[in-house]
UniProtKB/TrEMBL annotation:
Allosterically activated by GTP. Uracil binds at I195, G200, D201, A202. 5-phospho-alpha-D-ribose 1-diphosphate binds at R80, R105, D132, P133, M134, L135, A136, T137, G138, G139, S140, D201. Residues 6-209 form the Phosphoribosyltransferase domain. It comes from the Bacteria. It is an enzyme of class 2 (transferase). HAMAP family: Upp_B. This is Uracil phosphoribosyltransferase. Its EC number is 2.4.2.9. It comes from Thalassobacillus hwangdonensis. Pathway: Pyrimidine metabolism; UMP biosynthesis via salvage pathway; UMP from uracil: step 1/1. Its cofactor is Mg(2+). It catalyses: UMP + diphosphate = 5-phospho-alpha-D-ribose 1-diphosphate + uracil. Keywords: Allosteric enzyme, Glycosyltransferase, GTP-binding, Magnesium, Nucleotide-binding, Transferase.
């Protein structure tokens, strides 16, 4: 079964509190999501392999140092709201390629509907990080992960800001090979499929729509 990591760092939790507040406006919301994504990038990349290299510093020649050992990363935001996490991630992983999966959740059935997929050509070689601020029923994340696997993806992680236990269980059940990274695990879903206490509709809050 996939592991669940809640990144309980004081800076992440502090910023997440402002993200949740209903008085936080679009500009500040977007900046904070960016900042939290960058902080989460730091944690989600903790286990990337490094190799020893030799470098010349201004003081000595042939000093031992470490560099990332070539693991290729791909970021896959689920449109729309996942886009809000891309720049923050790219600040720390600038060489990552970015694919996109477009899904929306039908408001009546809560089922995900796929409308767009564009991915790097070598996804089977990349460690893919699926980005979406919200993991509610898990339908969208599960569908996005299916879509990636169908096209050859082999290593996938899921990174969300806020999750409901129902969504985490759904992903663990359908994709036991996928580890999940969260800023917070919330209490539950309400009758409309919103995460409680949550932060509302992430896409609307990021882009000022309703
Ligand atoms: C939101 C959110 C997730 C999905 C989560 O997207 O960004 O993709 O809902 O819900 P689920 O776990 O129950 O599938 P939405 O469908 O509102 O689309 P948007 O990003 O375009 O606003
Ligand atoms: N999608 C959102 O944007 N927010 C929720 O709480 C649930 C699904």
């Amino acid at each position: 079964m996939g592991k669940v990591y809640v990144l309980d760092h004081p800076l992440i939790q502090h910023k997440l509190t402002y993200i949740r507040k209903k008085t936080t406006g679009t500009k500040e919301f977007r900046e904070l999501v960016d900042e939290v994504a960058a902080l989460m990038a730091f944690e989600i990349t903790r286990d990337l392999p490094v190799e020893e290299v030799q470098i010349d510093t201004p003081v000595v020649e042939g000093a031992k140092a470490k560099m990332l050992s070539g693991k290729k990363i791909g970021l896959v935001p689920i449109l729309r709201a996942g886009l809000g996490m891309v720049d923050g991630m790219l600040q720390l992983i600038p060489a990552a390629k970015v694919g996109h999966v477009g899904l929306y959740r039908d408001p009546e059935t809560l089922q995900p509907v796929e409308y767009y997929v564009k991915l790097p050509s070598d996804i089977e070689e990349r460690e893919l990080i699926v980005l979406d601020p919200m993991l509610a029923t898990g339908g969208s994340a599960n569908e996005a992960i299916h879509s990636l696997k169908k096209r050859g993806a082999r290593q996938i992680r899921l990174m969300c800001l806020v999750a409901a236990p129902e969504g985490v269980e759904a992903v663990q059940e359908e994709h036991p090979d996928v580890d999940i990274y969260l800023a917070a695990m919330d209490e539950k879903l309400n009758e409309k499929g919103y995460i409680v206490p949550g932060l509302g509709d992430a896409g609307d809050r990021l882009y000022g729509t309703k």
